[in-house]
Amino acid sequence: MIKIIGSVCLLAVLMSSCGGNELLIPKPPTYLRTNFPKHEYVKVDDATTYSFELSKTYFAKPLTYKGQLTNHKEINLGPLNGILYLNYYPIPNRDTLVRYINLSNDKVDEHQIKATKITDEKFIFPDRKVYGTLFEFEGNVATNFQFYLTDSTSHFIRGEVLMNCRPNYDSLRPSLNYLKADIIHLINTLEWKN
């Protein structure tokens, strides 16, 4: 009996030592590949204030306040699992424009703690009287895009993207790159009604 137990132990030791020079390296974390639809756009027309082109995969709905329809929009980003909020504000005077721009910049500053990098891109379209800035945040932040657009006299729009997931910039990067193209298209096609 002792010989059998000894033989089994010896055999187990010999088998565990086979191929002994293999270096075990843990695999890096991976993320699911996302297939995005082709960029196709449809015109979204707010009857009184502005219009723009939006990706066909997203859905824009007007927001109400105290039962009244507003010029604010909530854009469901469909397969990207997020929301783009567009808030529209009329500009009654020049001081209000400065206040709105400062408010937008303050909202950007709120994310400096978590962002590893914040870049901005200016948009100037004098023929359509559209002027604004797109802010892009890198890192594990609550929002990866914010922007504002104005005609500098009557209209002001502030946009903010919120994803419905835990912020993980590395895994979200493909979705954010796809979304950025759609946001830039929205900005490039925005027109004021009056």
Short description:
The protein is of the alpha+beta class.
Would you kindly provide a written description of the structure presented here, covering whatever features stand out?
By secondary structure, the protein is an alpha+beta fold. Helices cover 27% and strands 37% of the residues. The chain is built from three helices and ten strands; from the N terminus they run αβββββαββββαβ. The protein has helices spanning 2-16, 94-109, 169-189, and strands spanning 41-45, 50-55, 59-65, 68-76, 82-90, 117-125, 130-138, 145-150, 155-163, 191-192. The strands form two sheets. It has a seven-stranded antiparallel β-sheet, with helices on both faces.
Furnish the topology, listing elements before pairings.
Elements: H1 2-16, E1 41-45, E2 50-55, E3 59-65, E4 68-76, E5 82-90, H2 94-109, E6 117-125, E7 130-138, E8 145-150, E9 155-163, H3 169-189, E10 191-192
Antiparallel strand pairs: 1-2, 2-10, 3-4, 4-5, 5-9, 6-7, 7-8, 8-9
